[in-house]
Amino acid sequence: MALRMWASSTANALKLSSSSSRLHLSPPFSISRCFSTVLDGLKYASSHEWVKHEGSVATIGITDHAQDHLGEVVFVELPEPGGSVTKGNGFGAVESVKATSDVNSPISGEIVEVNDKLTGKPGLVIHSFTHSLSFLGQEDQLKPI
């Protein structure tokens, strides 16, 4: 009898259950961890945008971490070339089946070019490194990132 009570209390403590002669272990907690790819030559903002500076032009995109959390992208809102953006302000949006996320500019500058392929095929944001906007900006604007 004592052995049966000990086995029962041990099973309860370990969250073991017996049904149809099968034992199931239910962990009391789970741990998951997300990892992002960090690429050379890019500077990252805490708001999940990156900047790649090449001469007097900077290219801006969203991190793979942001892309993973968005899931399947269904719509991308891009600014018009010739416009300007201010550091810390939104300049576009990425809409997925899960959520809509604003894209903030980590630098100030003039928009020289946008990736127009994204308007017709927004899913390219997830599959293409060139999901970016090009800005004319000064290199010293990139240092605070």
From TrEMBL:
Alphabetical GO biological process terms: glycine decarboxylation via glycine cleavage system
SUPFAM superfamilies (UniProt xref): Single hybrid motif
Any single Pfam family the record assigns to this protein: GCV_H
Transmembrane segments annotated in the record for this chain: none
Tagged with keyword Transit peptide: yes
Single GO cellular component term: mitochondrion
InterPro entries noted in UniProt: 2-oxoA_DH_lipoyl-BS (IPR003016), Biotin_lipoyl (IPR000089), GCV_H (IPR002930), GCV_H/Fam206 (IPR033753), Single_hybrid_motif (IPR011053)
Keyword flag Lipid biosynthesis: no
Domain Lipoyl-binding residue range list: 57-137
UniProt keywords, alphabetically: Lipoyl, Mitochondrion, Transit peptide
Family: Belongs to the GcvH family.
Full protein name: Glycine cleavage system H protein
Organism from which the protein derives: Medicago truncatula
Gene: 11433975
